[in-house]
Amino acid sequence: MDHPFTYEIIYSTRRTTALQVTPDGRVIVRAPKRCPRSFIEAFVRQKEDWVLRQLARFEKQRKEHPAPELPPLSDKDRARYISIARDIFTRKTAYYARIMGVSYGRIAIREQKTRWGSCSSKGNLNFNWRLILAPEEVLDYVVVHELAHRREMNHSKAFYAIVESVLPDYRQARRWLREHGDSLWTSV
Ligand SMILES: [Zn+2]
Fold this sequence. Notes:
- The chain is α/β, with parallel strands linked by helices.
- It folds into two domains: 8-64, no CATH class; 75-185, Metalloproteases ("zincins"), catalytic domain (Zincin-like), CATH 3.30.2010.
- Helix content is 46%, strand content 14%.
- The protein has helices at 37-46, 48-64, 75-100, 136-148, 157-166, 170-180; strands at 8-12, 18-21, 27-32, 107-110, 117-119, 125-128.
- The chain has a three-stranded mixed beta sheet with strand order 1-3-2. Strands 4-6-5 form a three-stranded mixed beta sheet, covered by helices on one side.
- A hairpin with a 5-residue loop joins β5 (117-119) and β6 (125-128).
- Residues 145, 149, 155 line the site of zinc ion.
């Protein structure tokens, strides 16, 4: 079945299926892990009119308020941001690791389009410097998320229970990253 738009499917441990249209015009279906493809197809078909309306609305917005064309970031400015990020993440990691009673290895600051942070099996941590452009709660969440992997190397209920015990409002920060994370690539 052809749709007048393409969509991505993100499978997760959620129980229900949901549809999202992002301001940059992506259509995302979030679905439970073993959700059959035919169900997703039917779900999208049912919501086709809504999706088209959202796409038209965002397209109009983009035309009326085009994103400013940013000059490429200079190496000097990037180095400065990375150095600020290293200070911030070093401090926050030490702070939360003490609260959570976990150890960690080295901290590296990266710029990877696809991830905000990571934690290796040896406890080495990577953080994306662009997070320093996000609200503070978001940085805290990424730090606590990666440190929680020192106890649970997965995204299980037990894992999120650890995150929640440190940051009861972590869902808001996580949502912010999902909804606005892309803006961190266009703000400097
Ligand atoms: Zn994780």
